[in-house]
Amino acid sequence: MPMPALITDRTQADLDVLTRLAAKGCFLDFTDEEKSIWLGGISQLYALDGSLEALDGTLYTVGDDGVRGAYNTTDYNRVETAVAYLDAVLRAMGYVAGIGSIKTSWTVEDLANETELARYLGNVRAIRDRLYLSNDLPDSMGGLTLDGANAIEKALTAADDAAAKIPAAYIHSGTTYSGLMGVRR
Known about the structure:
- The protein is mainly α and 185 residues long.
- It has one domain.
- It is built from five helices and two strands; from the N terminus they run ααββααα.
- Strands 1-2 form a two-stranded antiparallel sheet.
- Helix 3 packs parallel to helix 4, helix 3 runs parallel beside helix 5 and helix 4 packs parallel to helix 5.
- The protein is elongated, with a radius of gyration of 21 Å.
């Protein structure tokens, strides 16, 4: 399984697109371009404006790459896939990050489960901490902002970069390094 492409650059403009589309209220009122942004698998959207309230508890339809101003099951599945990838990379090098269970099949119902949300963020934190990285992460998924959503995926990007550098830091022993002081008598 490869490392998925992570989204680390959500902007206010992305949130504005979501807000504008949600304000239209009815999918039938969308232009063809707006429909192409919105269409895809069913996910419950959370606006990344600091409130992280479900938009009136309504189910919305979102494309595979999602509406970037929202955080939905597509985002959770992508991040969990990245966590699984990084956990496997670290284990192959002899490091155990202390990851709990990994779930890459998030559904709408899971988004309301505080235990699942805490586990999700805890897995990201475990990967970050195992590599002694200092990336900020949100304290919880409640009140998630654009910066918080970006921070989650930036932490995993930094972890991937750091993990790739670990082999270069190994100290090797061999004829090049052993006995540099000569043979003692």
